[in-house]
Structures are given as C-alpha cells and as structure tokens.
Amino acid sequence: MVFQKIIALLIMVIPAAIAMYGIKLIRDAFFHSASPDVGFLWGKLILGILAFAIPVWFIAGFILHHERKKNRVQPRFMVPEPDDED
User: Given this model, what pLDDT does residue 47 score?
Assistant: First the structure.
C-alpha cells in the first residue's frame, strides 16, 4: 500500500517539476527579449508553453480519473454508460 502511494506521488511530482521548468522557459523568453542585443526567443517560448501545458493536462486527467473512480465528480463529467438496447 505504501509503495502504491509513493508511485502516485511520483506520478504527480514529476509532471509538476516539468511544468515549473516550462514556466521558467516562458519567463526567460520574455526577459531575454528586453535586452536590445537579443531578439525574441520564439523557440524557448513555444517549448516553455508545451512544457507547461502538457503536464498540467496530464495532472488534470489523472485527478479526474481518480475522482471518477470514487464517484466524486458532477454528472456532466461522468463517462456515459453504453446502452444495450439491441
């Protein structure tokens, strides 16, 4: 049981660390553009946005899946059950 909780914690911490690095890349792209000798760093900005958005999307999906298993979500977020009227 403890090992499962450690794995779940790692599943949440690793994407959060990647998202924090994405925020750092976005910040660096904006602050380096303030310098007159450096142009805007589009590659760093796009990589930062991706490194932030994908882990946040993953964490949100993980939490939604966990809450669906425990029936703690609103009905609009529940997966509809297939009808067997054939």
Answer: 96
Average pLDDT over residues 30-58: 89
Rounded CA Rg of the chain: 19
Q: What does pTM read for this prediction?
A: 0.78
Q: Tell me which of 26 and 80 has the higher pLDDT.
A: 26
In Å, how far are 5, 24, 25, 56 from 44, measured between CA atoms?
A: 35, 10, 6, 18
User: Which run of H or E residues covers position 30?
Assistant: helix 2-32
Instruction: Give the N- to C-terminal CA distance of the chain in Å, as an integer.
Output: 42
- Residue 50's Cβ-side half-sphere holds a number of Cα atoms within 13 Å equal to 6
